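Quinone oxidoreductase
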Amino acid sequence: MAKGVRFHEVGAPEVLRWESVDVGEPGPGEVRIRHVAVGLNFADTYFRTGLYPAALPAGMGVEAAGVIEALGPGVTGFAEGDRVTYTGSPLGAYSTERVMDAAPLIRLPDAIPFETAAAMTMRGLTTAYLLRRVADLRTGDTVLLHAAAGGVGLLFIQWAALLGITVIGTVSTDEKAEIARAHGCTHTIVYRREDVAARVRELTDGAGVPVVFDSIGRTTVPSSLDSLSRRGLLVCFGTSSGPIPPIDAMQLAVKGSLFVTRPALADYIADPAERAALAGELFDHVGSGRITVEINQRYALEDAVTAHRDLESGCSVGSSVFCLDSAAA
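Predicted structure tokens:
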């Protein structure tokens, strides 16, 4: 019998339950997948707490890697036994197996292990669209990145270096600052004891940066805006500290004709051709070793409560995954 993590009410990590689930057979356009590794993302907590709405009871998780075990009618481009990875709705990735639409699936190259795929598909594609689609960045540019030692942060730093982009990264501790620098972060700011915007101005000779990438939200948006150069762009792509506060449009003018965007990964991988292009570039960098994926936390799927506690405590570094079948990875 398949098993999975579900929640019947929103709240703290303790609402997550390890339950038996009836998977069934795939219908038209669907496949049945046996998961080998499942991604753990901060966005998962948004569903659990109710920040992102979900019809209850619901499964948990949007990212996993595994093997196709059965095809429904009309599925083309895939075969039983194919190694695949995916990220995106609907919820239900925290499971040993599931039936789902084949459309979001991405064929996984043999050179990339399942655990690596589960740790990087969402984070890697997020990094890809941030650096390759959202902002018009050029070699020699300097940007500010919050949460530089996180899962997206460590991938972003490495990819930015390949593009010749200098990263100023914020972190919570000296230990995380050391990790970020080891991955190519040129400058680090320990935000708990330093004024972020003042330090950014100092590092840029008073000019500020053309782009700030902010996944923190409520607590960082003010300093992010104050770190931008004239006509700079604030990219808010996460809200780990809480919802983004209201932004006074007139203040954008006063601070230098600034721009603000709140992109979502779903809108950058909705088109199959664009998803394939971004995934191809990501897989090429990882498969060649130009970008390494740091998996520093591994959990059993039935330990989802502990995993969510760790995630929200801020003690996690790099990526986290649930491991279901180490022999197959």
